[in-house]
Design a protein that fits this description.
This protein is mainly β. The chain is built from 6 helices and 37 strands. Helix content is 6%, strand content 41%. The chain binds 2-acetamido-2-deoxy-beta-D-glucopyranose (4 copies). One 2-acetamido-2-deoxy-beta-D-glucopyranose binds next to loops. It is an enzyme of class 3 (hydrolase).
Length: 588
């Protein structure tokens, strides 16, 4: 057992406030694991401990997965998440709970929800929070009430004391479950209620489901009192993608601004809607932008092919995401889970598995075609005071330029590239025009191109045996698509990330919807030891990779700009900051 702060101390928010202001309060320790891991630790390289993330959200120990019910209440950000209090692999899931003033420093509180009633006896799975008109939050979550078939029902929980800004205790009313899988719904595939929205005297939520063998479905349930819920016969939307987990449905403004709005803003002239689903089979999140008709309770994506050619928040390791509206800064914030890509043995040895991506602000691109995402501004408070810069540096064919003068195992890098000419851009194989990931697999960072590949080598060892490439590659407008614009691919190529060849290091890629005629494109990478979280073209395309170098660790991690294209490119500006650890990260 570790040291724990007594409950008496936790009972006073002023103490917590003080804690959040104190740097290095390392004695704040949360529920310690029961699992002892020395045996496993003996068999894994010591370097894996150097790979523990510094500023991405995670508890001190154990397994985490989906972010749940993020919300803002009385000056505090709350994040709940799926958590195994007993080990670094999935199991024994409860809702862990952490709070923050700034989305960066976090304090772990007591478990918020654990199996305790018939309606959640075998599991408290994912769910969402809704802020009621009187300002208090309600959680709706999936409970597993029968173990034999994972029978899934939807439950509610209320704060025991809504005067407590930390919302430490939650009460499950006796009328749970409030929704059961009736009317032909497959009870083992029926979960993850959304935040509710309110209009015309009714609350609505979505529940993710599977219809038949392969249709992903988002069912609408309506209620006047948040207690008796009735299913709308036809789902809000569905597609032949397999089970839809963790649906998320929210409005985004069409005014070209970056501000967000509350879920209940449904007036159709001001907003478009976003429907996101997590694909259980393929393990990624995709979304469409479209129109919500609240009278018919239907949603129609603007792009008829949107359920086939998937736009993703992130083309890497990013799943079960969820947004919430932050009224304090009028923005919508996205949380997403990034799992490990090492082995379960490594996870047990290091004692933890899973992080949350840096929370991202999301808004609709002025084109209306897609979302934009950017790390919340608060993360910039972790930047060191002495950034290193490059300016107007031409990088020639085959050249790479090291960025020196700072440690880059934990860093934030922003770079703007100028591409003087698109003349030499290579032609695109039409067979790969719709498959960025495959294209990147064929045209990796070391395959010379016309314009690109150019970008960053991050977490590179001194002799470059190890390096993770994050880059762009520009193709000529392809004959089989109507666009006359060059096609831009953004790619994360970790195939050389580690000398340890037993790891899962797939290439990840997405296309970037940007007009390269202006000859400019930007990249930002948040590097955090075993995380490379990158934002292309101001947040049009994002890729989070988990990588596990064996040499490029700590002070031995280097950063370079590279160009493996025939055409010169120019770094008009690069700025790199060392990133500090937050003073408080759940005791980790
Ligand atoms: C409710 O929370 C407030 C604020 O933390 C506290 O002052 C009050 O004593 C709490 N009430 C109960 C019944 O615990
Ligand atoms: C429910 O879904 C599970 C898992 O996909 C499947 O094995 C089962 O056959 C389905 N049950 C029915 C009644 O369709
Ligand atoms: C997590 O990691 C494994 C690789 O170890 C991957 O295959 C899996 O799909 C990942 N993602 C999720 C959401 O589970
Ligand atoms: C090209 O545009 C035409 C006319 O708008 C359309 O019918 C066709 O489907 C488009 N082709 C592709 C590959 O998008």
């Amino acid at each position: 057992m570790g040291v724990r702060l007594g409950r008496v101390a936790w009972a006073c928010p002023a103490v917590l406030l003080l804690l959040l202001q104190l740097a290095g309060a390392s004695h704040v320790v949360y529920e310690t694991s029961l699992l002892e891991t020395e045996a496993a630790a003996a068999t894994v390289p010591a370097s894996i401990f150097e790979l523990s993330t510094g500023y991405h959200f995670r508890p001190q120990k154990n397994w985490i997965n989906d972010p749940n019910a993020p919300l803002y209440y009385k000056g505090w950000y709350h994040l709940f998440f799926q958590y195994n209090p007993k080990g670094a692999v999935w199991g024994n899931i409860v809702w862990a709970h952490s709070v923050s003033r700034d989305l960066i420093n976090w304090v772990a509180l007591e478990t918020a929800l654990a199996p305790s009633i018939d309606a959640d006896k075998y599991g408290c799975w994912s769910g969402s929070a809704t802020i009621m008109p009187d300002g208090t939050p309600v959680i709706m979550y999936t409970g597993v009430s029968r173990p034999d078939v994972n029978y899934e029902v939807q439950n509610v929980a209320f704060p025991k004391n809504s005067s407590d800004p930390l919302l430490r205790e939650w009460v499950k009313p006796a009328h749970n479950p409030v929704i059961v899988p009736e009317g032909g719904i497959n009870a083992t595939q029926f979960r993850d209620p959304t935040t509710a929205w309110y209009a015309d005297g009714h609350w609505r939520i979505l529940v993710g489901a599977l219809s038949g063998a392969s249709r992903g479905v988002a069912y609408v349930y309506r209620s006047r009192d948040f207690r008796r819920w009735t299913r709308v016969r036809k789902p809000l939307h569905s597609a032949p993608t397999g089970m839809w987990e963790c649906p998320d449905f929210y409005p985004v403004t069409v005014d070209g601004k970056e501000s967000g709005v509350d879920t209940s803003v449904v007036s159709s002239s001001r907003v478009k809607h976003v429907l996101k689903n997590s694909l259980d089979l393929r393990r990624y999140d995709y979304y469409t932008v479209g129109t919500y008709d609240r009278l018919k309770e239907r949603y129609v994506p603007d792009n008829p092919a949107g359920d086939k050619h998937h736009l993703r928040y992130d083309y890497g390791n990013f799943y079960a995401s969820k947004t919430f509206y932050d009224p304090s800064k009028r923005r919508r914030i996205l949380w997403g889970w990034a799992n490990e890509s090492d082995t379960a043995v490594d996870d047990v040895a290091k004692g933890w598995a899973g992080i949350q991506a840096i929370p991202r602000k999301v808004w609709l691109d002025p084109s209306g075609r897609q979302l934009m995402q950017w790390p919340v501004e608060e993360v910039e408070a972790l930047r060191g005071k002495k950034p290193v810069s490059l300016k107007d540096r031409v990088v020639k064919r085959g050249e790479h330029v090291e960025v020196t003068g700072l440690q880059t195992a934990q860093a934030d890098v922003e770079v703007s590239f100028e591409v003087p000419s698109l003349e030499g851009a290579e032609a695109l194989d039409p067979a790969l025009a719709n498959d960025a990931q495959k294209l990147c697999g064929v045209k990796g960072a070391d395959v010379e191109g016309g314009v690109g590949p150019f970008g960053l080598w991050v977490l590179a060892s001194s002799k470059l045996e190890e390096r993770t490439a994050v880059f762009f590659r520009v193709f000529k407008a392809a004959g089989n698509v109507n666009s006359t614009k060059p096609l831009v691919l953004m790619c994360s190529d970790p195939t050389k990330a580690s000398l340890n060849k037993n790891l899962y290091h797939p290439t990840f890629a997405g296309f970037v919807d940007i007009d390269m005629a202006k000859g400019k494109i930007s990249l930002r990478s948040l590097i955090d030891r075993s995380v490379v979280e990158s934002f292309g073209a101001g947040g049009r395309t994002c890729i989070l990779s988990r990588v596990y170098p064996s040499l490029a660790i700590g002070r031995n991690a280097h950063l370079h700009v590279f160009n493996n294209g025939k055409a010169d490119i120019k770094v008009s500006r690069l700025t790199a900051w060392e990133m500090k650890k937050p003073a408080l990260m759940n005791g980790a």
